[in-house]
């Protein structure tokens, strides 16, 4: 698989039409001059955006095209331009038979996801199809995702740019890398890789759950604790049985329950009666107060004035006043009678309550006289606590045993799958050693004098690098990554693997001039594409003729990627 062309279009026409060179070095050149005193850095002309645009066609969410990498803020100018101008990205790819596949996406609509004029309903189905096109495995048949494996070919984030092997986020497990590189090294049975990864992930998940449930203990320790706990419970139960309770004990307990229930009812009833009495007394006091506030002289004068205005009034003032006072007096008398009745009822209930409380005290004394009641209650409380602890312990032991059993079962299943895996291992290791490392060792030696190689440890289920001399500089790290990627292209060619034979890189500025020359020489010898963005001034030593012959795109402050 080779990249043929990247076309960026808007509703107003084509913005960029970038043809790739089908063999060797492809340069995206930024002509911004390097100057210590200049604020112009070339970081915003779009050379990284070019790589991210290719990545967008391979299923990224595209936010890194308009989001600032450091501040994480949206570049509103670019974002608005992409959406309002209906900018689309079209990437054409050629397979080994020169058959063309065109991937097209747009920011204008979530549904504008197209492969060879076939529109896809969602990004997930789009990525599944690309995974099948590039690596010949439908997503349904593998645990590997397109976005994981494509990082090996389009290095445009901090993880893939700065690491040879661990191209993904730090949260990714070794088993994911094992599956990715087994595929890339041409392991012939993808079903075995998928099964091994699925079972391995399940075992890891079960072990994590086992560790959480076990805490700082283990099964033998917990089982020993359970035996000791059961012994304490048996001893407490024995103590309960040995307590010498009177024959009437059960009857006294039942009687006590009845007394407590009745005293609770009576206490509630007394409370209600007290409330009623209090309210009635308040009503009586208000009536008395209203009666005492009447001023006969003032009312008399008012009455005389009414007679003058209205003429004859049938009832004399004295008679009206007497009627009012009699009515208030009758109300007070009625309320006082009601209060008296409530108080009599309360006294009756209180008398019954006092009698029951005395009876209750008597029953408690009888129980107390046995000398064992408090002891019995205390032991029962202790036993209840022990049973709760036992229940938790039994549940914990059962969960641990179930998890251990499931881990054992999955481990057996893994070993069975691994038997099939081992039948392919000898040839795999031979290919890695004799084919891949031939190129990888040669390239790292040519770029910076180290002879690196990679090998697979089937026991630890990891890939390892050897001959690394501790920590190396950024320049060395970058050339190691490039050597690794270019070695894979030759590996694919030698073994006839129809995988992508292109790699995209950024930030070549950190590489020393001598290493740039060596790296470009290697890239031009490879039957594939090494696509890299770089400041022109950084590679000016190569000469304008050389740069122009390898250039596919030139950018500057006056000619930015989206031309905005």
Provide structural commentary:
With 564 residues, the protein is α/β, with parallel strands linked by helices. Among the domains are: 1-155 and 500-564, Rossmann fold (3-Layer(aba) Sandwich); 245-371. The protein is 59% helix and 12% strand. It has 15 helices and twelve strands. Strand 5 and strand 6 form a beta hairpin. Helix 9 packs antiparallel against helix 11 (317-369) and helix 13 packs parallel to helix 14 (513-525). 24% of the residues are buried. Mean pLDDT is 85; it is low at 37-42 and 471-475.
List keywords for this structure.
564 residues; alpha/beta; Rossmann fold; four-stranded parallel β-sheet; 15 helices; 59% helix; elongated
Q: Count of helices? A: 15
Q: State Rg.
A: 46 Å
- The residue fraction in helices comes out at 55-70%
Low-confidence stretches: 37-42, 471-475
| The CATH architecture of the domain at 1-155 and 500-564 | 3-Layer(aba) Sandwich
The biggest sheet, with number of strands, parallel, antiparallel or mixed sense and barrel status, is:
6 strands, antiparallel
Molecular shape? elongated
- The CATH topology of the domain at 1-155 and 500-564 corresponds to Rossmann fold
Succession of helices and strands: EEEHHEEEEHHHHHHHHHHEEHEHEHE
Q: Determine the mean pLDDT.
A: 85
Biggest sheet strand line-up: 2-1-4-5-6-7
Distance between the termini: 32 Å
Proportion of strand residues: 5-15%
